[in-house]
Amino acid sequence: MRFVVITGMSGGGKSTALKMLEDAGYYCVDNLPVSLIDKFVQLCAMPENNITKVVLGLDARAGESFAGTTRIIADLRKQGHTIEILFMDASEAVLIKRYKETRRLHPLNSEGDRIEDGVRREREVLKEIKKMADYVIDTSTLLTRELKEELDRIFVKDKDYNSLMINVISFGFKHGIPADADLVFDVRFLPNPFYIDELKTQTGNDKAVQDYVMSFAESETFLAKLSDMLEFLLPNYVKEGKYRLVVAIGCTGGKHRSVTLANELYKRMKDQGNYGITIHHRDVDYRGK
Predict the structure, then answer these.
(1) Domain residue spans in the chain?
(2) What's the CATH code, domain 2-155?
(3) How do residues 39-77 score in pLDDT, each as one tens digit?
(4) pTM, to two decimals
(5) CA distances from 122 to 15, 73, 212 (A)
(6) N or C: which end of the chain has fewer CB within 10 A?
(7) How far apart are CA 254 and CA 224, in angstroms?
């Protein structure tokens, strides 16, 4: 039997993940009282139940000590039960934004408390179970489709997964460097398609621009060296417990060179290693004020 516990930050995507796994054929139970976890696992493991895939959603709303949850799961693992933990997370800024958009009260807040107080309180409550997690998915920049791809990768296709999500971003320096970028690369050393009339209004998502940018030997050399560096860096980031890496590639306006090279890097990395990867072109549709 495959038994998965989904937990994490409120607003991090637990409910969405639970529904997606239910659609994938998992028997799902949400927010079971902590005191019933042990009994629930024992019942599911009984051969006559014919249950092969179970998901249990847990969060801090139960009002019980979450330390009890980590202890129970640890004890069940010692008893020989294979229990995987998926922790759904997002940055504080994103969680606050999501709560503001939905106008919901954070479950750990009282009337009058600030959203950020509840977020920080919850992160403290959940820090121990996050350390126990087998998988951590940061949904700060994930689209729903991308989250489904990552869940399918882990729980349907059974591929190796090490919880590092790589976000490849193209941008224009004239609009500012992405605030969340971990690694920033400047490709303004390449000839600019903006100055070619037939390419000016196109972008790095168009074949004509892609062919032009990639026609230069420097483009291939840059991609080869960048890929080689990331091949070295990624396992070391994983070893240090990093869950999200933002690789930003910039040109002047963020429409041609950076978009092309970000697309090429994404294609080269998509099926390499056991990392999740997404791509986003921040300024490709920028029209100005």
Answers:
(1) 2-155, 166-281
(2) 3.40.50.300
(3) 999 888 888 878 889 999 998 765 556 678 888 999 999
(4) 0.73
(5) 17, 19, 50
(6) C
(7) 21
